[in-house]
Amino acid sequence: MAVHEDGRASEKRSGEDGDDMPIFNAENLQSNMKSIYYSRTFLSIIGGVVAGIWGFTGLMGFVLYFLIMATASLGFAAKAKFSTHKYFDCWNRIVIDGFLGGLMSFVLFWTFAYDIVHIF
């Protein structure tokens, strides 16, 4: 994950201006968000295939999806060493953003894998 800025430069700027607002590099923030988006999409696809192969139907498949996304959020926070303000502008970027974005991919691969494995 890309860090927003050198810590020494941030201390100098906050000392000069008097405000303690962190300064973010937009390119690094965008890169971090892309990484989370792609990771969530990949996990949605893999989770959908696993749910289909295991034969989950109905609510149980959606529970698996939300467990996978919750685990991914925890993993992203652990990767950032639980200091989310160093890599993101708010903690919602890790926890909530993209949580439902991979749901369509999950359902697509879930039904596809279920039909291939359990049709015969």
From TrEMBL:
<feature type="transmembrane region" description="Helical">
    <location>
        <begin position="62"/>
        <end position="82"/>
    </location>
</feature>
<feature type="transmembrane region" description="Helical">
    <location>
        <begin position="37"/>
        <end position="56"/>
    </location>
</feature>
<dbReference type="InterPro" id="IPR029008">
    <property type="entry name" value="EMC6-like"/>
</dbReference>
<dbReference type="InterPro" id="IPR008504">
    <property type="entry name" value="Emc6"/>
</dbReference>
<dbReference type="GO" id="GO:0000045">
    <property type="term" value="P:autophagosome assembly"/>
</dbReference>
<keyword id="KW-0472">Membrane</keyword>
<dbReference type="GO" id="GO:0072546">
    <property type="term" value="C:EMC complex"/>
</dbReference>
<keyword id="KW-0812">Transmembrane</keyword>
<protein>
    <recommendedName>
        <fullName>ER membrane protein complex subunit 6</fullName>
    </recommendedName>
</protein>
<feature type="region of interest" description="Disordered">
    <location>
        <begin position="1"/>
        <end position="23"/>
    </location>
</feature>
<feature type="transmembrane region" description="Helical">
    <location>
        <begin position="94"/>
        <end position="114"/>
    </location>
</feature>
<keyword id="KW-1133">Transmembrane helix</keyword>
<keyword id="KW-0256">Endoplasmic reticulum</keyword>
<dbReference type="GO" id="GO:0034975">
    <property type="term" value="P:protein folding in endoplasmic reticulum"/>
</dbReference>
<feature type="compositionally biased region" description="Basic and acidic residues">
    <location>
        <begin position="1"/>
        <end position="16"/>
    </location>
</feature>
<dbReference type="Pfam" id="PF07019">
    <property type="entry name" value="EMC6"/>
</dbReference>
<comment type="similarity">
    <text>Belongs to the EMC6 family.</text>
</comment>
